[in-house]
Every structure is written in C-alpha cells, then in structure tokens.
Fold this sequence. Notes:
Chain A: It comes from Paracraurococcus ruber. Chain A: Belongs to the bacterial solute-binding protein 5 family. The complex is a heterodimer of chains A (525) and B (313). Chain A has 16 helices and 23 strands. By secondary structure, chain A is of the alpha+beta class. Chain A folds into three domains: 102 residues, D-Maltodextrin-Binding Protein, domain 2 (3-Layer(aba) Sandwich), CATH 3.40.190.10; 139 residues, Alpha-Beta Complex (Dipeptide-binding Protein, domain 1), CATH 3.90.76.10; 220 residues, Dipeptide-binding Protein, domain 3. The longest helix of chain A is centred in the N-terminal third of the chain and has 18 residues. The two termini of chain A are 45 Å apart. With 313 residues, chain B is mainly α. Chain B contains twelve helices and no strands. In chain B, helix 5 runs parallel beside helix 12, helix 9 crosses helix 10 and helix 11 packs antiparallel against helix 12. The longest helix of chain B is centred in the C-terminal third of the chain and has 38 residues. Chains A and B meet through helix 1, helix 7 and helix 14 of A and helix 2, helix 3, helix 5, helix 7 and helix 8 of B.
Amino acid sequence: xxxxxxxxxxxxxxxxxxxxxxxxxxxxxxxxxxxxxxxxxxxxxxxxxxxxxxxxxxxxxxxxxxxxxxxxxxxxxxxxxxxxxxxxxxxxxxxxxxxxxxxxxxxxxxxxxxxxxxxxxxxxxxxxxxxxxxxxxxxxxxxxxxxxxxxxxxxxxxxxxxxxxxxxxxxxxxxxxxxxxxxxxxxxxxxxxxxxxxxxxxxxxxxxxxxxxxxxxxxxxxxxxxxxxxxxxxxxxxxxxxxxxxxxxxxxxxxxxxxxxxxxxxxxxxxxxxxxxxxxxxxxxxxxxxxxxxxxxxxxxxxxxxxxxxxxxxxxxxxxxxxxxxxxxxxxxxxxxxxxxxxxxxxxxxxxxxxxxxxxxxxxxxxxxxxxxxxxxxxxxxxxxxxxxxxxxxxxxxxxxxxxxxxxxxxxxxxxxxxxxxxxxxxxxxxxxxxxxxxxxxxxxxxxxxxxxxxxxxxxxxxxxxxxxxxxxxxxxxxxxxxxxxxxxxxxxxxxxxxxxxxxxxxxxxxxxxxxxxxxxxxxx
Amino acid sequence: xxxxxxxxxxxxxxxxxxxxxxxxxxxxxxxxxxxxxxxxxxxxxxxxxxxxxxxxxxxxxxxxxxxxxxxxxxxxxxxxxxxxxxxxxxxxxxxxxxxxxxxxxxxxxxxxxxxxxxxxxxxxxxxxxxxxxxxxxxxxxxxxxxxxxxxxxxxxxxxxxxxxxxxxxxxxxxxxxxxxxxxxxxxxxxxxxxxxxxxxxxxxxxxxxxxxxxxxxxxxxxxxxxxxxxxxxxxxxxxxxxxxxxxxxxxxxxxxxxxxxxxxxxxxxxxxxxxxxxxxxxxxxxxxxxxxxxxxxxxxxxxxxxxxxxxxx
Lengths: 525, 313
C-alpha cells in the first residue's frame, strides 16, 4: 500500500465508526437549557428540575392549553356544596415505575411534602383541616375555608409541581433530597446512567398507562413514542447549534437569539415558540432603601420604559419571539387584562419621566443595579434598563456579576453602600405570574416577601380575595384591580413577555405546545 | 534515588495542606450562596436558612474546615451540594475524558513540536525556520476556542468527517474514542506545540554550537544521528521541563476545550461547580489538580536522570 492510499483511507476510517454508532430512531436526543444538577422537583425550584419532574412524575391534575386544570391521575374530583371538602378518586390503572399501584396514601404523602415547599402548597397547608384516605383509590382534602383554585395548584407546571411519588419516598424531609427515583410519570429516570453536567437518560415506563385522550398540554393522553430520551448537556450555545445542524441531536431547548439566523438557513431545522406562556421580564426595585422606597420615584420611571426595546435586546428583532404590551399578568393567559395598561402603551416620554423624578425628590444619589452577565437575555435587558434610567437622570452604578453572586447579593437587606442593592432585572416563568397566588413580584408581604420586599396591604388583600374567588369572572375583576395597583404602587416594572423559541430537526413532529419541552406525543416522522 | 522519591512524596503533604487551606478560605470568602440558588425565587428567607442549615453552611469557618479536612484524611471528599452524589463518584465519572484528552494532546504535541523545533534549529534562518516560528506565534496568539470552532466547522459541519461534540469511552473502541477526541486534542495542543517547538529550537541552537557536535561531524556522523542522538538528548532537560510545566497549560485549556466540544470532563465539572457554588466539588477537583501537578513535577525531576547521567538524587 502506498502512503498516499493510506492518507486517502484515513478519513474513511475515522468516519466509519460514526455510521456504526448512529443513534436509533427510537432515541430522542435533547439539549436542555442547562445542567440537570439535581433531580428532586420538590427540593429545588429550578426550571430544569421541574422539567425532569414532569417526565418522571405524573400529577393529579394537569393544565390544558387553555391553562385550566383537568383531571390527570385523578379520575374524578368532587367538591362539597360548601367548597370545603374535595374528594379525589384515582384512575384504576395507575402504577409507579416499580409496578406498585398508586394509592391514596401515596398521593397524600406527596401532597404533604409538596405543601411544605411550594408557595401554593403552603397556602394549602394554611387552609388544611385534614387529608385522609377514604379507600385505596380515593382520598379527601378538607379545608378550613373554600379554595376553588386547589385543582389548579395541584396541576400547575410551575415550580414546584405536585409530583406524585411512592409514600416511602414522599416521606423524605422536603429540605433533603430524595435518594430513590421511582416515579409515576411516563418516563423512568435511569439514575445509574446520570452524569451531571453531561447526560441524563430516561426510558419509557412500561407501567405507565396514558389517558385515552389526545394530548392537551399537561393534560390528556401522555402517549410516548420514544423508548429512550437522552438529555445531553451542552453549555456552549455554538456547540449545541453545530450539533443540531450535524444531526447529532434532535432538539435544542434554548437556542441563543444570535444563532437563530444560522439555524433558520438550515432546511432540516424548525424554529418554533413551544413555550407560549413564555417568561415575563421584570425590573425589580428594592423598596427598603432610597430612592425606590418612594412610590412616586418608582412610578416616575414608567414613561421612560419602552418594552419593545427590552424585548429586542433580549431576543432580537423578530416580534414573533416576544409580546408587548405586557401588564402584571402573562399575556395570553386568562387573567391578563388591559387595566391601566396605557402607563406603558402611551407615547414614551423620557423628559416627562425626568421631570417626575425631580418632582418626586430624587437627589442624584447612586443607584446600584445588579447585572447578571451569564444570562444573555437578562444581561441585554439590564443594559437597556441602565441606559433608560441614565437618560432620565439617574446615577446608575451597574455592577456586573454572575447569577450565583446575584442571588446571594439580592438577599441582602443592607443599604446599597453597605453591599445591598437598588434594582435588578430578572424574568419569571409565564405560568408563575399568570395568577396572583404564585405571582411573587406582585405580592406586598414586605420583609417576608420576594427580594425587594414590597409592602402593600392592598395587594395582599386582593391576593387573599383571589384565593376565595368563586369563578373566573371574579378572578378577572381581582386581576384588573391588582394591575391597577401595579401602576399606582409600582412594586416592579413589567418589561414584556419573552417567548424564546426552541429549535428541532424537522424529523420530529407533534411537539406539545404551551409550556416547557414535554416528551410525550412527540414522534419521529 | 528511593530516599529522594520518598522525601519528595512527603514534601507534597505540606504543599497539599496549603492548597487545601487556600482553596477552602477562598471559597469561604467568595460571594455566592448555594442555598439561595437551590431555594429559588419562591422560597421564603426561612426556607433559605433551613436549606443552608441542612447543608451545614451555617456552621463556623473552623468547624467546616476541620470537618472537611477530617473527611479528606479518611478518603472522603464529601457529597455534592446539588447532585447529592459523592465527589469521588463525580470525579471518577469525569476523569477518563480529561485524562484521554490530555494524553492525546500530549502525544500529538510532543510528536509534532519536537521534530518541528529540531528542524527549525537545523535549518536556522531559512524559510522552514521562519515558517515554524510563524506557526509558533500563531499557536500562542489564537485562543483555543477559536481553533476549536474552526476545526468543528471545517471537519464536522462542512466535511462531515468527525462529530461536533461529545465523548466516547475508550472501552467502546479506539476509533470512536479517537474520532471524538482528535479535534479537541488539536485545538488544545496548538499553544502547547508552539511552546515546545520554540523551546526545542532555542535549546537545539545552543547545543548545535557545542564542541562535541563539531567533533561528531568531524568523525563523519550522519545528520540524523547528530540531531537526534547527540544534540536532542543533550537538549532534552529544558524541553522535558517545559513539557511538565505545560501540563498546567493543558489543565487550564481543558476547561475551555471541554466546553467547546461538550466533553464531560473535569474542566467542565469545575466550571459548573463554580457557577453553582458547589463547594465540595470545587474543593475536591482543585485538590486533585494540585496533586496531579505536584506529581508531574516529581516525575519530570526523575526523568532528568534518563537524559543526563550527571544528575543523581
């Protein structure tokens, strides 16, 4: 053999194992938004752990595309005439991944664990008279006061989901991680193959019986068409983009806006907004310290806010990837309304904002803004916010840091000059901020509340009223009042709804639209 | 010799102790709170405090340090705050890809750089010498991630010869292992090749001017024999030193390379752990890297005796 022949053969030799190692059609290769660092959807509130939870655990109720709860593991849900007694019966074919039957005791233990960590779960805990099994497949939740939103809370997909686990697992202290991963959902987690930061493997559960209905977001039949789903962690967006183009992965959850033009040029790749509920951009003030301790100063900023510029900085010019105007509640969800929305939709007037700021007594003091540089979307919106505020005369000190530092820093209640802060930009899952119950930026529970510690008895009273609202019409009235309170008290500034798209190979079809990436119903071909 | 090795091994103990103290103190003082990251936005301050307590992060500095050192002395590097997996397990999961990448890079770099340096010295002042030096400047100047992206674009996306990313264990076959690592190794090896080639050239130039080389030529020794037997062996000590020092370069470069090529190695484990403030993992990995570096230096010292019989320990 001549040397030249050997050189010609080398690429073929290198390429040959690639053909042999090609993935089977029954495996779905998915690049999630980040690293799956922990796998207990109750212990942590991270979105990725929640997404893992939605694969491995089923829920008693699930939201449909209309964001209304529908029975999922539940076969029926009866509410007594006084609204205090909720009787939930279970489907007869429910089994955990180990083949054991799902019983009322498992559900009660799972709800109890969830209720110690989730914000709506804590509400349930406060209202709970008792929970007891009536039979193996039936249990009741007795409340001290009526709560029509109980099914919504038990079926909402935002963290924390009310994941149904075997009783022995659910008895784990909610502040400790579970060590056994036996779920009730359509996929079985292969803990032995989990390499954090690299790969997480799921297999179709042989014991899962889907509802005999079409898939409807988190409700309906969760039919699985893949034997195996691999989450492949890729921290570098350019690498993930190249892997998708090269058919090494099928689906990328969070393509960077800058890379979308490259992906769009590839005819094998589809770009689609799957998470229609999106994320609400939020500019949050610290209410404990000047200057944002004064509502007049917080309100003065509204005329300077052009939501469109924030969205463009985050996701680019394509208006299909964001929605403005956005008020207090997620646009497109039932409680979104236009009460007082003209505060953000009227002509933008930085000069008016400047005058209002002076009139409110802003003395030119330094305003410390925390800027997370490792989240491109938040970084972009933070830069726009800093620029808008500088233009109206604010003395902004934008401090760049990673998210890990920011989450510690924002918990500090000290004055800004002693390591505290004045404002930061973040985003909230659309479904979290679609109802008052889990809408933390809108709350007014002061020192016990979300970072920024806004205090407002009015907003707290409206939230309480929402919990007791008998129907959606009443909920909508309360939501409108709450939005009005937003413009008057300005606990935060809504910056628009981000709808980051997902990118996937066109060989996939029937992806479930509405929220996070879901792995039922989707198929190849 | 044996006594020397024992002395050197014992000398690593205070070095490791200082590294341990330094790493632990640095992390203690660094901003960031894993409990806040775990708790998320919906958590109350009481929830965050409870998580902090459950992780033992509310204990005083000395208690935490003492407990960590005690565990390390018993072979226990602790448990990751986030994954709940033992740090040793996480390191075991990640050590093969990093070792593979470093060994392949080392082999590639040495086998390319040393002949290049020798050639440049032999052909000093010619176009070959200038080409080698230009390559060296390029190797130093172009960042690893740029080389990585370029290689992936050409060989994976355009030519479709090699995968863009990932790692296949050696146990799954040599070629699958190699096809995943060849591009990362070339990307990572660039700066290393440049460094070794320059040092080899400089050292060889000095050696080629020595009297014994002139004597070898006068005796009629062939060019190959002069370059590789007489000159290179005598120039080997500084070259080997640079190869050893370069291990640190490789460790640093592996962090970037593993991210660009999505290789699940120790570099990425370190970055992920730092971003999340997963203290036990950071401490474990840094301690391991320090130990490896100390060990490599010891090996380099021992290798000197193979090239220069005058060196005795």
